[in-house]
Fold each of these.
Amino acid sequence: MKYDNEPGPERRSRRGGHPHGPRGAGHHPHGGGRGRGFGRPGGWQQADLPPADDARAWLLGRLPDDWFTGEPTVTVDREEIIVTGELPAPEAAENAAAAEGRIQRFREDTREARMKIADEAESRYGRKLAWGASIGETRILFTHLAVPVMTRLRQDERRVLDTLVDSGVARSRSEALAWCVTLVGEHTDEWLTSLRTAMSEVDKLRAEGPEL
């Protein structure tokens, strides 16, 4: 998978305000009027992020039908929503260069529409929306977040990261840590999926409880 994280008009700065103008402190995308979100300095706060349980359904209904050959993949975390879809393969040539060219054309042709949908999603869910596209084995993720994670590591744990750096597997400790997270995710995918499913059930039960 390739990452195309170059700065461009797709990237929005939260400090610059919402592109459609300021929102009142009582605005809430679901009409709740809870006084949270863009009305607060710095945008949405981690503690009061709106739920994104229906993000996939909302996006499937919002996206144009002719963008992808099937349903896109939608992944959500606390900071970001990523939408990745499969594009029709180019007829002229079936190779990585042709696939990358077709993905780049899709990126440019849909830029304005994707930015509009991203604005709507950020207003609704309090998270940035990133995009990606794939053709066969070629997958490119467009401008997306790289969120720093603060952690404390003991010497044995630091030595693991330094070994990856010294061997050339990673260029820095932060890249080595990202490599470790990816490796764990690949080898424990079934367990992580079960854990996320259990967590979603807890979220549903919590949502059904009384408001404090």
Amino acid sequence: MATAFDIAMMQERTEEDGSAPVVAVENLRKAFGTLKVLDGINLSVNRGETLAVLGRSGTGKSVLLRLIIGIETPDSGSVSIRGQNIAGLAIDQMGEIRKKIGFLFQHAALYDSLTIAENVAFPLEHHRRDMSRSERGDRVKQLLDEVGMVGGFGKLPSDISGGMQKRVGLARALALDPEILLLDEPTAGLDPISSGEIDELILKPQRERQMASIVVTNDLHSARTIANRLAILDRGKVVIEGRFEDLQQSDIGFVKEFLKQS
């Protein structure tokens, strides 16, 4: 019979070899009044994997991300991060979980009164008190260099384009070297060239750092580019999940129509 130590060691090995989901959503339900936004969602993502969640506007894609990061509370079901159910965690415990998660908001959500460098430094100043000012400065320079924005240190968000703001938002999301990256419509409103550049910037940390990523998007081309698996939502449920080739071969009417219109 396996002892508690044996079970703990098996769990640790499973986490290390990437076979256990880093994020697991089980039977998740969320409604606002009489409107069912998510109705029994089951999804997971492993280390080094990107899952793209697609669907029409208003299908609960962004709500799913807010539930995963703990901004919203599910009506039922669970969200687990590395095997830990986040429901009911104390504020300090949830704070530790969030340090492992980088979040790129749909509109970058940069602080208007802070420079680009100060925006990227913000999470470091609040969560990495062990770093000196010089170390934080080096880290900010490295991050901005990685997203092609090293020349914009002193600029304000209003001085740069929407695509550049997304780059800075991504740099800030990566500041704490997270295990999980959540992206809300990362290519929305961008031209095809800028969208392709953002896709490549998302792929880079996936390859180099083996992060688990979840991206919600209406951009099918971007989803095909960056994701290992895709899931399509409709009326609060997962209609289909799999590789893009699986979606193409589906006989489900909604899936066919969605692919045709996307």
Amino acid sequence: MGKKIALGVSLVFIALFSETLLAAAEPKDCHLKRHASLDLAEDPTGLVIPVIIEGSEERMVLEAGDWASYIAERDAHRLSLHVRPLPRGVDVQNADARNNTVQLQAMAIAKRFAFGNIALSGASFYVVPNKTVAANVIGSVGMNMFANFDIEIDIANRKFNLYSPEHCPSSVVYWSARYDSVPIRVGKLGELYFPMVLNGKAIEATLATDLAVTTLTTDVTRWLFGFDANSADIETSADADGRTTARYRAMQLRAEGLDVLNAKIELVKRPADYCHITSRSGATGYEGCSGVHPLRLGLNVLRKLHVYVATKEKILYFTLAGAAN
């Protein structure tokens, strides 16, 4: 068996950009308005939430780091969704945790889709091969489904809550008097990302609620830190036959006020040949491809946090899990 070592990592969200957020006129009522509270489950596929699609109660993986939503081909047909091919010239790929990509060919449309008592007028999904979707879920829900809501991810209490985005600025962390925040940026495909400082270097990051472990791409580790998955001091994990299945590195993310211990970062391959490293607003990311960011914060980090995403403010608020007034 490969050697597994628990590594202490100090996590920090740093607001790298001093920018003024132009606030709209404050609503008269500053209280949060919760529209739905869903039970949140955690399994090997990631965070899972209940949905109702064409009248059928189903389970889908929450993908907070992706704008689009996906459904397995088997379930698109089982639920009698309207499936149509993607327009000619449209190139859409879906990547797994290790950046292996699958070319997508079709979209599926659901006329009826709901989160609890919140009914959407319709929902669209990219159709993905059955082998890429676990048997206990039908696909994944991206941020396109939550464009009109704020979201709260409370893994410790197994809750995923949806709120109205109409509230007073900085008035959303109801569970704790102390919190930190970081500005959110919106990518070309609508995905949400933010800057983090990793071993002294600023890197673009996303919330990867579909991953068990935090990942970082090896072209970025070579560029910024001079190591990759084949470096001598990289730790490995092996399957029952002794084959290496993952490579890890201890990294340090630091700021005042928040520590997450015993985290590890899995090194994954470059997303695609046409993704090129660049620096945007002082943080390392990619150009030439859309919707891709080097650092993805998996559940080994996120389960230690309580997170609120204020979509209209474009602010991510967070505390340690279990923090209270």
Amino acid sequence: MPPRALAPYVECLWVHRLGDGDAVYEQPVLPDGRIDVVAVGDRVVLAGPASHSTTLRLTPGNLTVGVRFRSGAAPALVGASGADLRDLDVAPGDLWGRAGAVLASRIAESPGWQARLRVMAEVLTDRLPHARPPDPVGTGIAVLLAERPDRPLPDLAEHVGLSERQLRRRVEEAVGYPPRLLARVLRFQRFLHAARAAGPERSLARLAADAGYADQAHLTRESRELAGLPPGALLDWEAERLAG
């Protein structure tokens, strides 16, 4: 759980550790509408919202820790818009100057995941006096679209009392995506969550319908564009990696 003072901005703290072995581990990073502060080994970056998949190659024994921001909440605390961070990994020193450089050096000196997460939380907490509250439009639209990705843009704009142009600007500033791309990403994440819960007996056609796709072909197109693979191949690859 994030420290109480960071709760309006931070969704969770997370850890990913690999065991010892000989094989390099391939970890896909799929679009999810989030911004993270991440330490992969001793390298620290602010990972912006991804619009397409990438694959990290991690060596045995690798330790990765991160602070994940709520969708739309990061810019108010980190001092850069979601749109400016989209598809980028930014060194904290480039963004926060000396405070960011200190974060990177303290991470390198911290041996375990608990200490590293504590350093990240402390540095982010130190930024709170200069932060503004998260934009309720950016964070609120993310919640609405997570519940119903097919909600029309005019309906969303009317719901928050903005023009469609104003809504697009506010959402892209906060989240890093325009509303339609955000809806696509959140719908795909909904599919992935349901598919993982369903296990190997899953029906892609049923999962596509439940996630809000027009049909399985629609899901396949979206999976290729967002994840680089059709959904069946993506899930099989994930199962093989976890089994290994």
